[in-house]
Every structure is written in C-alpha cells, then in structure tokens.
Amino acid sequence: MNNISAAEIIQQVKFSGQMPKILEAIATRNKITAAATSAGLEVDDSELQAAADRLRLANKLHQAQDTYNWLQKQHLTQEEFEEMVYFSVLSGKLAQHLFADRVEPYFVEHQLDYWQVVLYEVILEDEDLAQELYFAIIEREMSFFEVAQKYIKETELRRKCGYRGLLKRTDLKPEISASVFAATHPQLLKPILTAKGVHLILVDEIIQPALNPTVKQNIVLELFSNWLQAEV
Fold this sequence. Notes:
Layout: H1 6-15, H2 19-38, H3 45-58, H4 64-74, H5 78-99, H6 103-109, E1 116-124, H7 127-138, H8 144-151, H9 155-159, E2 163-168, H10 174-180, E3 187-188, E4 192-194, E5 197-207, H11 213-231
Antiparallel strand pairs: 1-2, 1-5, 3-5, 4-5
Helix pairs in contact: 2-5, 3-5, 5-11
C-alpha cells in the first residue's frame, strides 16, 4: 500500500462520506489549540510521558517493537505520535481550565440525571400474562427469578435472570424511569406497558449520586464537548 498517493486517500475519504467528519475534527483541533494558546496553557515533559504511557498501555504496546509496529500500521512517525499525545494532554488541560469550577453547580442542577439503579427485567408480549405473573410473585407462588428463567427467550439474558446492570435515568424510557426511581428498593413494580411489550421490573437497588472524581471528570468532558459543538 506504499504506492497509494495522498490524492487517492483524500478521494477515498470523500467517497466514503467521511469528509465532513474529518473537516469538523480539524476545525475542533484548531479551536482547541487557539484557545489553549490564548489561555497560556503548556504541557510539561512529565505530563507527556504519563499520557504516552497510558496510550501504550491502552493499546497493549508493552515492548518497543510493539510501539514501532503500531506506528507503522497507523502510518505515524514518532514525531506525529508525540504531537498526538501532546494534543491529547492539551485538550484535557483546556477542559479543566474552562470548566473545573462549573462542575459542582452543574452537578447540583442535573443531580437527577446521576441517580443510578440496579434492576432485573422480563419483557412479555401478553399483558394478561404479565399481570398474572406479577400477582404470582407478590403472593410468593413464584419468584421473579423463576419467571425470568421461564419467560426470557434470549439465552444470555436468561442466564442473568434479566439483570440489566447499573443504569442511569437516561438509560431508561421515561415511562419506565418515573416508576423505577419512585420505588422503595427492593421492589417489584406493577407491569409497565411500552412499545417493546409489558415490562416486569424488579428494582434491586437505587444508588444516590456522589460527586466523585469519575463523575467530576465526566461532567468536565460533557461541558467541554458542548462548548466545542457550539464553537466549531
């Protein structure tokens, strides 16, 4: 593939419909660079080294030869690799510079979005059957997990007894989230009808949000992303 020209690469990008995305990425890069320069932000060698180490770890580049092979595959020189790492660190520093002091107010204003729930779910096609099973569970004629084992068709989900994991309010349909987050856990909800079917939901745990480092970082990145979309 060494005989492929730059013009051919650009043509293929156009043909694949990726040109608008590429142009937006370039404009975003230019905006970040200009804003960071205006703010007087700099990246020191220790920050670059730490970021490069994280990137190598993420791509399982444990040996020098691994890194060399990866650079070859990505058509990157060592200098371009360092520039890529530099820009990544600079972007993170700009995000913190612009929005670190807005995290707490944002968290308070949007706190409902950060509540989480652990739940189990069985989706049925028949509303009468769902009602029958609901009362069977309430009256302890069957357990929720017996219902899940019997009525969930998807193999992996059945093995997990309908376990949906840790979910945020935005992961659920509005008609479901309203009932879920009003529950007193653990609680079996009355059947809920949606376009997907009739949902039998066991709310196992509701987790109150905490402004931990991960949440702080996610908020900064969200605010930064919104800012970039408005600016570019």
